[in-house]
Amino acid sequence: MTPNPALGVVFHWLGGLASASFYVPYRAVRRWSWETYWLAGGFFSWIIAPWVLALLLTSDLKAVLSSASAGTIFWTILFGLLWGVGGLTFGLTMRFLGLSLGMAVVLGLCAAFGTLIPPIFRGEFMGEVLGTASGRTILLGVAICLIGIVMAGLAGISKERVMSPAQQKAVIAEFDLKKGLAVATLSGVMSACFAYGLAAGEPIKLLTLKHGTPTLWQGLPVLVVILMGGFTTNFIWCVALNFRNHTGHEYFTRVFRTLDSKNRGVSSLDIVPSCTETKAQRRVPMLTNYLLCALAGTTWYFQFFFYTMGETQMGRYKFSSWTLHMASIIIFSSLWGLSLREWKGSGTTALRLLFLALFLLVASTVVVGYGNYLAIAH
Question: Residue 274 falls within a domain, yes or no?
Fold first, then answer.
């Protein structure tokens, strides 16, 4: 199959849209703690969707995975475990910084580490990247992307300075700039490990192609392995929080519970209701919550479903896929932030910086795509 960078950019944009949109259904979950809905959605993100789609679209999945070397499986899962740390702290970043600023900080670090380290590690950076016109064009696109990410971060900081604490809390209930930036830094660095996991899983791609899998779907078996590692990290952390916060019952009961002064669970149905609240209104909408988590989790998975498709279209400079992915996520997350009124009252300067960031990020995807086109044309 001849690579098609323009089609690859479209796939990466679709992946970015999925990534920027997945958290929205979680906002509608009611009377569940963060750890409960994060893990419930995670089963669809990391286990159900990857296995179902890989079984449907690739050939001999179990045979491919069983024939992969132990070293390949180990490193792919290990990077998935490390990426899982970034994934769960990403959820905390959304709580403390909101969609726009949170994604700008996390993905800025993630873009830098995830794009440049793989070709440096493989010894390809000086010769194949800096040494060619197409490679230098791609690096220009990466630089434009990073500048755009910085602009998005500055926009968020400008918003934080203009808005009062009350306004910040009204838009993002748990807004905390210092705590959010610390968590976002950890998340961004560790999230880049996903790109390393994809590189470690290259032998799995070769195996699935030998078994007759179409080129477009060759990355799906690798996702199964990486996401097993990511699931392990998130599962351990969320279950630990369930125990610590006494929230494990939320997976199974419709009764909403609060904690008394001795940290014992108390059914909300045993509490004297207000004159405007009925017992039915205090019950947990279990089916709705699970459906919302399924939607959020599956949507999250589709970011990498489309990512692996886009990567097949980028030719020998497929490392640039990571930049395209990060740029598209920030573009769509910023648009979500605007639609959810996270930028209300942020001031003219913040909005100007945000729109400049969006322009630069769109431009970066065009430049990176053109760089890959030059590589194919020559």
Answer: no
Question: Mapped to the 3 state alphabet, what secondary structure does 173-237 carry?
Answer: CCCCHHHHHHHHHHHHHHHCHHHHHHHHCHHHHHHHHHCCCCHHHCCHHHHHHHHHHHHHHHHHH
Residue in the structure block whose two tokens are 């610590």: 244
pLDDT bracket for residue 77 (50, 70, 90): very high
Rounded to two decimals, the pTM is: 0.76
User: Do 72 and 208 contact (CB within 8 A), yes or no?
Assistant: no
Residue 266 lies in a domain: no
Which position has the token pair 């969320």? 238
Exposure b/e, 28-47, CB count within 10 A at least 16 = b: ebebbbbbbbbbbbbbbbbb
Dist CA 26 CA 32 (whole Å)? 10
Q: Is residue 309 included in any domain, yes or no? A: yes
Out of 110-114, 168-172, 275-279, 321-325, least confident range: 275-279
Structural domain total, the chain: 1
Integer Cα distance of 212 and 207 in angstroms: 9
Strand, coil or helix: 258: strand
Tokens of 262: 């001795």
What is the distance between the alpha carbons of residues 116 and 35, in angstroms, rounded to a whole number?
33
Domain containing 288 equals 5-248+284-377
CA 319, CA 324: separation in Å to the nearest integer?
10
Query: What pairs with residue 84 in β-bridges?
Result: none
Give whole-number Cα distances, 375 to 19, 369, 372, in Å.
28, 10, 5
Q: Please, what's the largest Cα pairwise distance for the chain?
A: 75
Counting every residue, how long is the chain?
A: 378
The residue whose two tokens read 């996702």 is: 223
Q: Does 273 reside within a domain?
A: no
Closest by alpha carbon to 204, among 73, 293, 50, 312? 73
Radius of gyration over alpha carbons of the chain, in Å? Answer: 22
